[in-house]
Amino acid sequence: MPTVVIFDVGNVLVDWQPELLYRDMIPDESLRAQFLGEIATKDWHFQHDAGRPFAETSAELTARHPHFAEAIAAWGPRFGEQVAPMPGMAALVDALRARGVPLYAITNFSHEFWPPFRRTYEALFEGFVDIVVSGEERLTKPDPVLYRRALDRFGVAAADALFIDDRMDNIAGAAAVGMATHLFTDAATLRAALLDFCLIDPDIASSNEEPTP
């Protein structure tokens, strides 16, 4: 049975939806769909998770799409506005804390976007022992080197860890280095898994209350 929990952040602990920022900035639905689906794509954003500076990626994208210059420029400074609390997850983190389970995270996240985001969600991350940020390491999940580096830094044996992520490729990478895994879909399903692993108390009530950022 695992004795520690290692979380992914985006789309697990919090809900990442670029639409949240751009609904007002680009009110035309077709233009907004074009911007998010063809220009400021998740593949483009993944460069930030790998450590590329936003100044570089935004300049390149603006040169190709100058008519979207304002929207591109907002992506980095206003990244926090793309994120919302994930229903039910604050309660599960509290339940793990109450049980004394050591908490960690390995996140694909820009080293530039991470500090202001972390400050906004400080209550959620209170008590986390350590968090590995891909942009700081210049490595991204599911690279096994990142998992091993994180485990070494945490001082945690792979066999003692439960890794939670919303992407199957990241789950497969964690399993390959020896961690127990859970593919995240929602808080209710995760709560059942945590009960199966005896990581939270059975009498902990489910809750959708979230910390106010």
From TrEMBL:
Which InterPro entries does the UniProt record give? HAD-like_sf (IPR036412), HAD-SF_hydro_IA (IPR006439), HAD_sf (IPR023214)
Identify the Pfam families for this entry: Hydrolase
Instruction: Please give the NCBIfam families that the UniProt record associates with this protein.
Output: HAD-SF-IA-v3 (TIGR01509)
Q: What is this protein called?
A: HAD family phosphatase
Entry superkingdom: Bacteria
Q: Which PANTHER family match?
A: ALPHA-D-GLUCOSE 1-PHOSPHATE PHOSPHATASE, FLAVIN MONONUCLEOTIDE HYDROLASE 1, CHLOROPLATIC
Q: Which organism is it from?
A: Alterirhizorhabdus solaris
